[in-house]
Design brief:
This protein has 3 domains: 83 residues, Winged helix-like DNA-binding domain superfamily/Winged helix DNA-binding domain (Arc Repressor Mutant, subunit A); 97 residues, D-Maltodextrin-Binding Protein, domain 2, CATH 3.40.190.10; 104 residues, D-Maltodextrin-Binding Protein, domain 2. The protein contains 9 helices and 12 strands. The strands form 3 sheets. Strands 3, 4, 5, 6, 7, 10, 11 and 12 form an 8-stranded mixed sheet that branches. The protein is rod-shaped, with a radius of gyration of 31 Å.
Length: 301
């Protein structure tokens, strides 16, 4: 049975006749008659009493009528939902957010939510390696990854290009240093992120090139906890400078890291050639717009 036939039957009953139904459907009366007759043949029952001044449903017609109305309403909801989805008004978007992501993603999420309130953002919070694996397995469409990236595998937009800085307790000897060389930290216990995070590898490799093996005092996946460990004197940490803005000077000493500088660049990435949902494309539009607006939207390195 066809939806067009159900709609023709429903309109005939609602309008009280074939001619009025044809006007409502913007078609001809013979077309409406043929559609209703086809529905009756499909069901093997007469659905309308045609001998009266006003066309009325038969017993079978009264049984069919609420089902027809429900099916037409559900079909309309499907069409409306698909239309909204195609215009980026509804849906779900899954994004991978790195542990140092709030400064980058909160402004974007705010701008996106204002424009697309019907799209639910589902965040996958983990390190670059786990986010990359989730993207390859199709669990995520977009993710914030530590650059540089393989251009053969990914398309990407830079979100931030920053450098690591030293975060130390306020009463440490580093409070007197505007900058420090990495080799000077050879005797300092370091607080790193959890073992799988790629930023750890970058820090440890830089330490080895500077001539020492770092002493690991602790690990955490939460920047707030790392900052608290530093404040209490457990160790020092190397964190992106943009993540340290706004920290109270009475609690911390912050020094620029030099010789070498360690890059921390995060790109928003997606698999090259992969299908992107309307929600994902809408997110990319917001990112590009915020990048044009400038540093007030995305932190500058």
């Amino acid at each position: 049975m066809e939806l067009r036939a159900l709609e023709a039957f429903w309109q005939v009953v609602k309008c009280g006749g074939f001619t009025a139904a044809a006007d409502r459907l913007r078609t001809t009366q013979p077309t409406v008659s043929k559609l209703v007759a086809q529905l009756e043949r499909d069901l093997g029952q007469a659905l309308l009493q045609r001998g009266t001044r006003r066309v009325l449903p038969t017993d079978a017609g009264r049984l069919v009528l609420p089902h027809a109305e429900r099916m037409l309403r559900e079909a309309a909801a499907i069409r409306s939902g698909v239309s909204d989805l195609s215009r980026g008004l509804r849906g779900e978007l899954r994004i991978g957010v790195p542990p140092l992501g709030p400064q980058l993603f909160v402004p974007l999420m705010h701008a996106f939510r204002l424009r697309h309130p019907g799209i639910e953002l589902r965040l996958y919070e983990d390190g670059s390696r786990a986010i990359e694996q989730a993207m390859l397995e199709g669990e995520l469409e977009l993710g914030g990854l530590l650059a540089p990236l393989d251009d053969r595998r990914y398309e990407h937009l830079m979100l931030i290009d920053d450098r690591l800085a030293l975060l130390a307790p306020a009463r440490s000897r580093w409070a007197r240093h505007a900058s420090v060389r990495l080799a000077e930290l050879a005797d300092e216990p370091l607080i790193l992120f959890l073992a799988p995070y790629m930023l750890n590898e970058r820090i440890v490799e830089a330490c080895r090139q500077a001539g020492f093996e770092p002493e690991i005092a602790g690990r955490s996946g939460q920047i707030g906890f790392i900052q608290e460990l530093v404040r209490s004197g457990v160790g020092v940490a190397l964190l992106p400078g943009s993540e340290l803005r706004g920290l109270r000077g009475g609690d911390f000493a912050i020094s620029a890291l030099v010789e070498p500088q360690i890059s921390w660049r995060i790109d928003l990435a997606w698999l090259r050639g992969a299908y992107l949902s309307h929600a994902a494309r809408a997110w990319l539009d917001v990112v590009r717009e915020q990048r044009r607006i400038g540093p007030s939207a995305l932190p500058a390195g």
